[in-house]
Amino acid sequence: MTADPRAARLQKVFPVDLNKFLPEIVLRNYGRWVDRKFHGYGIIEHISETGERVFTVKIAVPPNARLSADTLEQFADIADKLGVGAMRDTMAGNLEILTDSLDKALKIRKAVEKMRFPVGGWGPTLWGINSCTAYLTCTTAVVDSPSITRALGDALKPYFTG
User: H/E element holding 83?
Assistant: First the structure.
């Protein structure tokens, strides 16, 4: 008799220990960040009391963070090659890639912009534009809000990149 895969899913322990997913440099300095510096509108440097530094590159993604698996794989390759092997999506609907030097952060920005994704969103700038899922998953949608949001995002891109 084959075990029911649903039974195993119900046996998961919550909450999930998210520390096992954090890069070593972040774990070593967790709760010890004392300062930050901005390097343009899309790169922030986090400085720890230990002297270690982590750089975050913020990338705008399309409304509702709809990305193809191929695009996500390209971002993951960039995070693995130039970063510390970590990226995350934000509540504002952006993607962030972490790295350990300003030189690598600048290379990440260049690679991401080559993919035609803008880098920005910190300081006195637009942080991100989101919309409901509309017709893609909603049975009561009356407008194509992702397309409207995309048009707004394209028009307001200079306010994201500074």
Answer: none
